[in-house]
């Protein structure tokens, strides 16, 4: 194997097929099960898109009503999950809370399974598990933000759909339709993105025939990093640092001189702009108008045009979603958990797809450590000598 055979970061490697989504950087498009994500974001609820990702087609009215009924039934934060979250230090990152909560939910659900041989589950079982995780995540995320603010949890409301209820549980008040709509769109745009780092992590774990919960918990860990899901949070830190539009030029001069990565820009696959950005930017614009915050739009536009002008690197979805979540009232630390609530739909769809035609994911590596060496005075025993001899025999 030569160095040129190595695909660092698996860049450009096609690892498997998927029928769940198609990212096409040439045409700047993203399809979920064949539908352009922009069309889904403008016309569908997040529940309908979750159904689409899991089942392959959009739901009819009865199917959507059934999913909504199940989702409502599992919205409550179980007392022991709340207690587990309370064990996580208040100054730990909320992604640690989410990871802990999901881990406990999995352990409880799989308790009594008996053997690791039967944890991967049937498609039916995994679909039911996926819907339950999708349903309970808003309560986990909302509770996290509220407890950090010293507020009591808010019980879910059965008369509200997913997005409106999520905001209700977070803020304890009903949000305006324009806010619910922008939030719903963001959830749809974040739901799925082919073999990104967290989804691939989930597929690697599923490929060992481990359980869906373990795969999702691993994916949460991958999403936490600032090169992936953590970037939406990092965008807000940058906005806070810059302060206002007129400071962009000098701030950028210094950041680029220090060779800093500007979070919210760049993408491994899209090199001419992220297909999700225009839809999320339009949602951000409605929020800017709703909350009367032209200063946010000015900072956003100035940083974008200056950075694109200087580096030719375009914004990714985290760039408009960070300020949008900030305007809605989410704490910066809550942004990546929001990404989890959305992406759990894509992760679980991929876990089921992986299990549907599984092959253990186990790449090779090119060794570049020291040449073979030996411990002074070591005398190989008979078994070791026999194994060494066998290794020299040609493989039949
Ligand atoms: N700021 C400054 N320079 C950048 C940036 C950026 N945001 N993105 C890429 N570059 C430069 C990079 O420094 C490198 O320059 P050089 O060749 O001179 O060393 C060149 O562009 C190629 O960058 P790379 O990191 O090798 O490219 P990649 O395809 O591996 O990186 C990326 C993709 C997302 C890791 C990177 O663009 C980045 O770190 N962006 C900031 C973090 C971010 O916004 N992440 C969210 C990604 S989208 C949401 C998601 O899918 O999770």
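^ Assign residues to that structure.
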């Amino acid at each position: 194997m030569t160095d040129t055979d190595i695909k660092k970061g698996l860049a450009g490697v096609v690892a498997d097929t998927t029928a769940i989504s198609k990212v096409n950087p040439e045409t700047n498009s993203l399809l979920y099960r064949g539908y352009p994500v922009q069309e889904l974001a403008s016309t569908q609820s997040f529940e309908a898109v979750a159904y689409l990702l899991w089942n392959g087609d959009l739901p009819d009215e009865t199917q959507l009503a059934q999913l909504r009924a199940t989702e409502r039934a599992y919205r409550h934060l179980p007392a022991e999950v709340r207690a587990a979250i309370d064990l996580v230090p208040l100054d730990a990152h909320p992604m640690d809370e989410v990871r802990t909560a999901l881990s406990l939910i999995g352990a409880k659900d799989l308790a009594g399974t008996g053997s690791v041989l039967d944890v991967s589950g049937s498609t039916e079982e995994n679909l039911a598990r996926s819907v339950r995780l999708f349903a309970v995540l808003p309560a986990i995320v909302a509770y996290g933000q509220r407890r950090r603010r010293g507020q009591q949890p808010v019980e879910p409301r059965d008369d509200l759909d997913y997005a409106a209820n999520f905001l209700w549980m977070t803020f304890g008040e009903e949000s305006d339709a324009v806010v619910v709509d922008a939030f719903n769109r963001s959830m749809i745009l974040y739901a799925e993105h082919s073999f990104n780092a967290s989804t691939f992590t989930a597929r690697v774990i599923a490929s060992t025939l481990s359980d869906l919960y373990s795969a999702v918990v691993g994916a949460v860990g991958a999403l936490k990093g600032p090169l992936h899901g953590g970037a939406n949070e990092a965008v807000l830190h940058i906005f806070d640092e810059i302060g206002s539009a007129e400071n962009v030029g000098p701030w950028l001069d210094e950041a680029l001189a220090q060779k800093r990565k500007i979070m919210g820009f760049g993408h491994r696959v899209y090199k001419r702009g992220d297909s999700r950005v225009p839809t999320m930017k339009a949602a951000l614009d409605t929020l800017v108008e709703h909350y009367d915050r032209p200063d946010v739009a000015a900072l956003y536009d100035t940083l974008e045009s200056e950075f694109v002008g200087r580096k030719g690197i375009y914004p990714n979805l985290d760039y408009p979603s960070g300020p949008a979540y900030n305007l809605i009232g989410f704490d910066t630390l809550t942004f990546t958990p929001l990404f989890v609530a959305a992406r759990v739909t894509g992760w679980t769809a991929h876990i089921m797809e992986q299990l549907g035609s599984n092959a253990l994911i186990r790449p090779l590596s090119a060794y570049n450590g020291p040449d073979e060496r030996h411990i002074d005075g070591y005398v190989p025993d008979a078994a070791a000598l026999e194994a060494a001899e066998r290794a020299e025999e040609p493989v039949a």
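The first strand starts at residue 21 and ends at 24.
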